[in-house]
Amino acid sequence: MNSELADTFGNLLSRACAKSLNPEQKFPQVYSDQLAEIIKSDACKTLIEKLSEMPEKCHIHYTNYSFNQVVDSVMSVLHAANSFFEASKPWELKNGNAEATRKLETILSLTMEALRISGIVLQPIIPDFTEKLLKRLNISEGRNSWANTKLYLRKVHHNLVDLESNILFRRIVLEKEKKELE
Q1: Which of 123, 95, 121, 89 minimizes the C-alpha distance to 108?
Q2: What would the pLDDT profile of 100-152 be if each residue is shown by its tens digit?
Q3: CA-CA distance, 140 to 134, in Å (whole number)?
Q4: Does residue 11 contact residue 115 with C-beta atoms inside 8 Å?
Q5: pLDDT digits (tens, 9 = 90+) for 32-52
């Protein structure tokens, strides 16, 4: 789980919040015209489907004390979000015209939405990590409850909070691994 969180969750946050793609450091809005185009891709369809199903699945897993299945469900969403991000190639849109900028912002918003929902779902399991994540995304305490695990397509952007770093979870490197790295 350590490696999965560090690599998948952390990497996705770093990519979505990178100043090269998101110089204004905002959780952007979703543009309907761009969403209509983006949603045609299989990667986007998969992400939205998994995001829509995850809260109910995870609620059942929590009820059954199957915490490992909660983590597996969230990681499945995060893998879908990474695939969506990779397939969308937002880095190719960063210096484009107004339409390209709207598409970039819509991609970033959907990606951050996957992070937001995943963070809320994982709060009981990794509270310190998710607290930092939700703070980075500027999600207030009143909006981080289970009732807020539904997909929300923003009509306006809001600013991110600068935490000095997008690194929220450092991998634990065992002594054996340290020696191998040297």
Answers
A1: 89
A2: 999 999 999 999 999 999 999 999 998 988 899 999 999 988 899 999 999 99
A3: 8
A4: no
A5: 999 999 999 999 999 999 999
In this structure, the chain runs to a length of 182
Give the pLDDT of residue 62: 97
Distances (CA, A) of 37 to 3, 70, 88, 101: 34, 31, 11, 14
> Of the candidates 116, 26, 107, 41, which has an alpha carbon nearest to the alpha carbon of residue 78?
116
Q: What is the DSSP letter of 124?
A: T
Nearest-angstrom CA–CA distance, 10 and 22: 16
Cβ–Cβ under 8 Å, residues 70 and 61: yes
Question: In whole angstroms, what is the distance from residue 51 CA to residue 44 CA?
Answer: 10
